[in-house]
Amino acid sequence: MQTVQIRLHPLGKEVSVAGGTSLIDVLHEFGVEFPCGGKGSCGKCKVKLLQGEIHTDPEHKRRLKELGLSQEWRLACKSQAEGDLVLEVGQFETMIQADDSLFSFEPRSGFGVAVDLGTTTLVAQLVDLSTAKVLAVETAMNPQRRWGSDLISRLESALAGNGPLLTQLIRQEIGAMLIRLVGERKISLDRIVIVGNTVMQHLFAACDIVPLSYYPFESPDLGKKLFTSAELGWSTDCERICFYPSIGSFVGSDILAGIYATGMWNRSEHTILVDLGTNGEIVAGNRDKLLCASTAAGPAFEGAKISMGMLATTGAISSVKADGDRMNCRVIGNVQATGICGSGLFDAVAVFLEKGLLGYFGEILSGDASVALTDRVGLTAGDIQEFLLAKAAIDAGITILLRKLDLGPEDISRIYIAGAFGTYIDLGSMVRLNMMNFPEERFRKLGNSALIGAKMFLFSEEDVTNTLLSLTSHVNLESEPDFQDIFIDRITLNQTSN
Ligand code: FES
């Protein structure tokens, strides 16, 4: 297959991909958001074509016209790289995008870096604090992954004596990302904001991890952690490096950042944020009160518990459509499928259901051990069961939070879906599978809300953080008397919930 080169401005990055690769696949690796999920309606994924050709079909042309974009622009969600390209990413040239609105900020002098320290991946963006423009992006896999893909295995490894090593590895990796971010620029960094879940916070800050490992899981070290680059052994100078505070023992500053990014903390109407990362977190409420909880749903949606599961990277089936007797699979990077990611899993189960291949409890009706999607990738009965458990955990978590807030589904004006998963998920499949009992038009995809919020924190003062923390309470779902009953009730397909 022909390889093409894509150069991205203002990031100064060049990538090689297979000809015909969708620009969504290329740009989502760099933290570009696709708020309407690639429908072509929001225009937020626009790229300026500086060199090369991107063919526009009649639908693409119509969308560009409706959005008032001149002929040098393209919508990345409707574009493929058929030849070499030089593109300017519109999103990085504008102010920070949060929700449907632009985040207004007080310009500051200097430069800052926002870091989303995920259990699986790390993303860092260099930001000009006078304009809020993103100047460079770096991504990396979390080097701690060798010690397990989920939080529990990371905790166990730290408890077994590897804590100092895990701390050293993550500090080194982020330090190396900073060197690459700054590159040849003659600048100094005024502030660095890091957000991540509670375990990542404890490991980065070298705090005692033991209190997070046994009931009641209460750590005295949930607060803000401040460092200088000298203390972290980083060669890139910065006197103010802040790991933002966690909300609760299993709800970290990544969710705090998500709450900030959505603006849900500042609105009278009630909204929900669901972050389907490695740990599936839910937040519900409004400016009077926010409740949050974490579930064990994340690993299935990140592919960790699925036999051929993988992250949303090259080779993953990211969507499945029924095409007569065939299954039409879209594969990230336009290559042969080697596995399936969370969004593909949703679509596949929805298509299986539509085709009458699954029963009420998700059992494969033919009695076969698996259902094939391509000649190399399929889902086993166990995979479908894992999917149902994850779906039920989110559904039951939302039900409990709404009950505690004395709200029904009709009181919720918007549901934000965050996490890499949100880039590719087909909301129609999610609604068909009844993971959350809300009409499709109330859902909004938010992309990496932790990173958006971290960027916004670069411009905020301490009192914002204190307001967010004082508004938000953590609910331990496991200790809720109804949780198990609701959870078990939801381990089905086609279940009406809430
Ligand atoms: S137009 Fe909305 S993501 Fe492309």
Estimated share of beta-strand residues: 25-35%
Give me the side-by-side strand order of the main sheet. 12-11-10-13-15-14
Q: Report the sheet with the most strands, covering strand number, pairing sense and barrel closure.
A: 6 strands, mixed
- What is the CATH first-level class name of the domain at 103-253? Alpha Beta
State the separation between the terminal residues, measured CA to CA.
49 Å
Look at the structure and give the mean pLDDT.
89
What integer value in Å does the Rg equal?
A: 22 Å
Bound ions, cofactors and other small molecules, one mention each = FE2/S2 (inorganic) cluster
In CATH terms, the superfamily of the domain at 103-253 is: Domain of unknown function (DUF4445)
Question: What is the CATH architecture assignment of the domain at 103-253?
Answer: 2-Layer Sandwich
Shape: globular
The chain-level structural class is alpha/beta
Question: What are the SSEs and their pairings?
Answer:
Elements: E1 3-9, E2 13-18, E3 21-22, H1 23-27, E4 46-51, H2 58-66, E5 73-75, E6 80-81, E7 85-89, H3 90-93, E8 97-98, E9 101-102, E10 111-117, E11 121-128, E12 133-141, H4 151-182, E13 189-196, H5 198-205, E14 225-227, H6 229-232, E15 241-243, H7 253-262, E16 270-276, E17 280-285, E18 290-295, H8 298-301, E19 316-323, E20 326-331, E21 339-340, H9 342-354, E22 370-372, E23 378-380, H10 381-404, E24 412-418, H11 421-424, H12 427-432, E25 443-447, H13 449-457, H14 462-471, E26 472-474, H15 483-489
Parallel strand pairs: 1-7, 10-13, 13-15, 16-24, 18-26, 19-21, 24-25
Antiparallel strand pairs: 1-2, 3-6, 4-5, 4-7, 8-9, 10-11, 11-12, 14-15, 16-17, 17-18, 19-20, 22-23
The protein binds FE2/S2 (inorganic) cluster.
